[in-house]
């Protein structure tokens, strides 16, 4: 079976598995990688960029290498290759868990239980929940759904289309390391620099594809394009900016503004300033948009891989 078909069938099965099963409560491969990365950090940590780069190389290289060996071991069996791709896709994407957590917070807000919403918010993002009222929590959830659609679904599919199982696993490893060490705390300002920069590079294509698909799948394509064009560059993150801006325009809401991380207050530019304030009902709208974007991304990535394969075969035939 051709590699493009292996990816298409396996990735579709993996996304369906995520839809039906979500993430396991125990023994998740990404959690196991996180524990291993933490163990490497305890050995290597120095307040130095070079040691942080070594940590990134060891962790990402080890994960990608193990995935490459696994893919090579089943290469002769189309069924096993599809199964491995499906398992890897299910392990690295997190669209169902993302939607589940967002909806749980939205349900708490709809019931007027702001304390319960604050308690659940750290499962979804790193904001300081005590610094947020109900509207602030709803806005944080919509922003997190937008950003994680790229990080937890679309970016993985892009790299799966490019590199198969090793691409899927390597992207999730990079993204996990960024979540662990890529923030600008005193401990990680230098040590996490390489993880953060590599995540910016790895997530670039997925973020732009996510933004484009939000334009296509949202209710206001013109507003989404305008917000992406005018506001994405104002965001401090080169990848979160296009995604959050396009989601804001597609949903007709304002995102950005003042927020707090780990006791540090940030004043971010407003995205889609002509939109209205986020409401609790927008959480469900964001989750539905995220799901549509994820399935569209599968189609785009599978088609892109097939077109590339046809191009390669055409070139070989002409030579």
From TrEMBL:
Protein's recorded name: Cobalamin biosynthesis protein CobD
InterPro entries in the cross-refs: Cobalamin_biosynth_CobD/CbiB
Keyword Ion transport: no
Protein localization: Cell membrane
Family named by the database record: Belongs to the CobD/CbiB family.
Primary localisation category: membrane
Stated role: Converts cobyric acid to cobinamide by the addition of aminopropanol on the F carboxylic group.
Gene name per UniProt: cobD
HAMAP family the UniProt entry points to: CobD_CbiB (MF_00024)
Signal peptide coordinates: none
Membrane topology: Multi-pass membrane protein
Organism: Streptomyces solicavernae
Pathway info: Cofactor biosynthesis; adenosylcobalamin biosynthesis
Keywords per UniProt: Cell membrane, Cobalamin biosynthesis, Membrane, Transmembrane, Transmembrane helix
